[in-house]
């Protein structure tokens, strides 16, 4: 009986280790997909199977130290009895990947919009590369003239990392548009928890009461800035009022 050579034994062990690594990778991908599908059901959104790879890639690269925060210049901090009421900031001219959504509920729009942007970030772009996470992911919302209710139309937007600002990779998804936003002054107030029509309108009305001159800002267009993904329960968010040009 011929003995197995050390070389063939090495290859046998090597291939079995690779198979084990692949199996563990597949199991992790399934676990993450199942988790996001459960979250999606809570927002009345179906998370398709083709999201498994982008979800896994985004999760693997979602270390806080690797996230790039959108740069801004702090102009003013307004406090009362040690509590931060709002910040006045200036954001520079920059390019964003944007997608317009119009689902029945706000949560559906941001979940579906975020999934499309995840695919773009995770290699489904002309560079074929993972683009990296920037925070916050922002959503432009609109209200009626009396600021009593939101309209269904929203825009979910991803700030392109500094190194991609000059030449943004082209999205494969034709629904995603690269836009250049002008330099803007915003009034920002932090809040935590879920974001839906009720919580957003509450935060809009609250900041309008706090600001000395809310009439200096746009009256029907606001931004929700999200610092944690839509799957998180106790999200860190901000409401932004946009100063008129």
Please describe the biggest sheet, giving its number of strands, its sense, and whether it closes into a barrel: 9 strands, antiparallel
| Beta-strand segment tally | 11
Query: Structural class, from helix and strand content?
Result: alpha+beta
Percent in helix = 25-40%
Average of the residue pLDDT scores: 84
- Low-pLDDT stretches are none
GO molecular function: heme binding
Biased composition (Acidic residues): 17-29
Region (Disordered): 1-30
Protein name: Heme-binding protein 2
Structural notes for this entry:
It comes from Spheniscus mendiculus. InterPro entries: Reg_factor_effector_dom_sf, SOUL_heme-bd. Residues 17-29 have a biased composition (Acidic residues). It holds the Pfam family SOUL. The protein is α+β, with helices and mostly antiparallel strands and 245 residues long. The chain contains four helices and eleven strands, in the order H-H-E-E-E-E-H-E-E-E-E-E-H-E-E. The protein has helices spanning 6-42, 52-60, 106-121, 197-210, and strands at 68-69, 73-80, 83-91, 94-101, 134-135, 137-142, 154-159, 177-181, 184-192, 217-226, 236-243. The strands form two sheets. A nine-stranded antiparallel sheet has the order 2-3-9-11-10-6-7-4-8, covered by helices on one side. Helix 1 (6-42) crosses helix 2 (52-60). The radius of gyration is 22 Å and the shape is globular. It starts with 5 loop residues before the first helix and ends with a strand.
